[in-house]
Amino acid sequence: MKALIQRVAQARVEIDNQVVGAISQGLLVLVGIDAHDTEHSVEVLAERILKYRVFADEDNKMNLNVQQINGELLLVSQFTLSADTHKGLRPGFSGAAPPEQGRELFERVVAHIKTLHAGTQTGVFGADMQVHLQNDGPVTFLLEN
Questions:
Q1: Annotated catalytic residue 80
Q2: Is the pTM of this model over 0.85?
Q3: Is residue 67 annotated as a catalytic residue, yes or no?
Q4: Which one from 78, 120, 121, 122 is the annotated catalytic residue?
């Protein structure tokens, strides 16, 4: 399981020109589910997302997490994070979770995070989404289990 986290001043997801999720200061999180991921992967990744320190403290050091700044989260499923790009000129997706497994585990990540952090929005699993963001920094990290 992978999460590409981006510290944002704001972000939103649109489907057919309709906003389905929007946040102000916080994290845009693109989540990729691999075929070998489990419920344990969900818990570990959810905790890391919430506790990862990417926001500045009073000394301008990255020492605060999204909960400590009362920031928001926008979680978006991102199938292409599971691509194998080690060789060739076209990505391979044999390691990605099948759609039903991916949906189930993504929904579990969302549910787990929502129980711990109220300010959470999502995109729509499997939809053709337009993601708009104002990256703050820019600050972007890839978390992997």
A1: yes
A2: yes
A3: no
A4: 78
